[in-house]
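INTERNAL AUDIT FORM
Audit reference: QA-55
Scope: verify that the stored structure record matches its stored sequence.
Auditor: D.O.
Record contents follow.
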Amino acid sequence: MTERLAPHRIAVIAPSPVSMFNLAIPEMLFGKVEVAGRPGYDVVICAAEPGPVPTGGGLDLFVPHGLEAVREADTVVVAGTGAPYEPDARIVAAVREAADAGKRIASLCTGAFQLAAAGLLHGRRATTYWAHAEELRRRYPQVDLQPDVLYVQDGPYVTASGYAAGIDLCLHVIRTDYGAAVANEVARRALVAPVRPGGQTQFTQTPLPPERGTACADTRGWAMRNLDKPLTLTDLARHAGVSVRTLTRRFHAESGVSPLQWLLHQRIERAKELLETTTLPMDTVARSCGLGTADSLRTHLTRRTGLTPTAYRAQFSRVGTTAAGNTSSAA
């Protein structure tokens, strides 16, 4: 990753009819990225024909920009229609031209049909909304269809399945461009689940429920700042100024889980972030997130993701991993 002097330009193509939810996702998430006090992205919505574009809900959405915006973009995102309509020849030509120029191209939901029609997914892994996966397979048998994943990247092409999986794809793009810390901050600001790897179904675990109160908010914030310490229930209760019993009751009412369950979740998320963004030895990662030892890190991460710390780093690291091999045997 390199520091950008200007925002990364993203053109989001709205086919007709377009899913409004598909359009809202990239505008919302990419619009929340700030790096060194500057916007990380410049998002432009465009269409094959500027003007009113029908939506799946029976409304018309006014899109002022045409496909010339694709030529100026660094990344192109093709939104879906919610159904496998015939690809628009103008959109197909635009994404093919973008591919020839070496741009990164992504699709949400049935936007994958446009990429497949352009020949971009020939021999590549890709996904789409599960309800239309067999139709994609029938029309484009050359695509290596992955029907049961959130999203998948193969080379410069990233495809997401339906609906909220577009959120996961956008967070993946942000993480690729600016790192896990920025992506997770965007997720927190948008009140969505943190970055979830999309390549395997075992990663689609249920995230923590949303917080429903603020009585323990200061204690949660304090715990997040002290994850490297061996915090106990007594430590949390002392910070909150209440008994352990009262803390447990309030914490569960606000977070939906016990204090120790919440704490373990945060430790594992911090460990994943460190594995993605650093080359720290496994013992150091374990101590930094409060899991103690590399053996403990291995146990908890494997239970949560199905991967050992070394395998997780190898699959999702965003930095050089030459130092990753300098780990304990427990990794």
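Auditor finding: record pair retrieved intact. Residues 208-331 form a domain with the Arc Repressor Mutant, subunit A fold (CATH 1.10.10.60).
Action required: none
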